[in-house]
Design goal:
By secondary structure, this protein is α/β, with parallel strands linked by helices. The protein folds into 2 domains: 86 residues, Methionine synthase domain (Methyltransferase, Methionine Synthase (B12-binding Domains), Chain A, domain 1), CATH 1.10.1240.10; 125 residues, Cobalamin-binding domain (Rossmann fold). The protein has 11 helices and 6 strands. A 6-stranded mixed β-sheet has the order 1-3-2-4-5-6, with helices on both faces. Strand 4, helix 8 and strand 5 form a beta-alpha-beta unit.
């Protein structure tokens, strides 16, 4: 397991003081021309950029990137991402609209018998290397404020590919959470972690129902052993997205469909507990 502290920098507004107090009409005019209009222009540009980002990272690009991951080294993949970043594609879009879908597409290639398990494993390893490189780049450029919250993420028993957890952990880290990841799918390792450390959240992903009968016992063991009696349990992955009725059946508190939503759900759950 590994501890990865992180966070995100909070925004701040600068206050500019004038040397002399002008008449009210002039004061309002200067406020509109010097403060409000420039900020509206920035918001407008930001919205345009977001629309351009969303349009530029469609499923076709994700499929091509998955194919590149099968045949190219991580340096080539980083070069492609570098070009997208130069085109002002956001890092969040890179994670959610490119890397995540590319990893899912690799899994589909395997399900369709287009590639071997070994090829998919190697390609996912290259994608994980890309995430680590992006994380290092971000930690050099940004100072994230810690929220004081901590989360443990684990693969469901029997999970073969855990790239989704890598993305989720990175989103939480960038949102100020301290994160631990246990990728082995071992209930014993997870229980050992929650006994030793206070976690606000336990998150687990599952892509198939191959070992569905082992998920509920893992959740129960986590709750029983947790140093935090109010630990929130959240699940995600293709299994729960396709069969949301299983969320309650395995004993989880919530479900998220992607990394962005997972952070929002977790933040809300922790705040709700704090108000009790």
């Amino acid at each position: 397991m590994r501890l990865a502290p992180g966070g995100k920098r909070g925004a701040s507004l600068a206050i500019v003081e004038g040397k002399a107090k002008p008449p009210l009409a002039d004061d309002l005019a200067r406020l509109v021309e010097g403060e409000i209009i420039p900020r509206l222009m920035l918001v407008h540009r930001s919205e345009q950029r977001e629309e351009r980002d969303t349009a530029s990272l469609g499923p076709d690009l994700a499929e091509k990137f998955a194919l590149y991951a099968l045949s190219s080294g991580h340096d080539s993949l980083l070069a492609i991402i570098g070009t997208l970043l130069q085109q002002r594609v956001s890092i969040e879009s890179i994670y959610l609209d490119l890397l995540g879908p590319a990893a899912r597409r690799l899994g589909e290639f395997w399900d369709e018998d287009r590639v071997s398990f070994a090829d998919v494993t190697i390609a996912l390893g290259r994608l994980q290397h890309v995430v680590r490189e992006l994380s290092l780049h971000g930690s050099q450029d940004t100072m994230w404020a810690s929220t004081g919250r901590s989360a443990l993420f684990a693969a469901a028993p029997g999970e073969q590919h855990t790239f989704g957890l890598v993305i989720i952990e990175e989103f939480f880290r960038r949102s100020g959470w301290r994160t631990w990841a246990e990728l082995s799918g071992s209930t014993e390792e997870v229980v050992s972690a929650v006994k030793a450390h206070h976690f606000d959240l336990f998150g687990m992903t599952a892509g198939s129902d191959d070992r569905l009968d082992q998920i509920a016992p893992m959740v129960m063991s986590v709750r029983k052993a947790s140093k935090n009696p109010d630990i929130t349990v959240m699940v995600g992955g293709r299994l729960f997205v396709e069969r949301p009725e299983l969320v309650a059946k395995v004993g989880a508190d919530a479900m998220a469909t992607d990394a962005r939503q997972a952070v929002m759900v977790a933040d809300g759950a922790v705040r709700k507990l704090a108000l009790r």
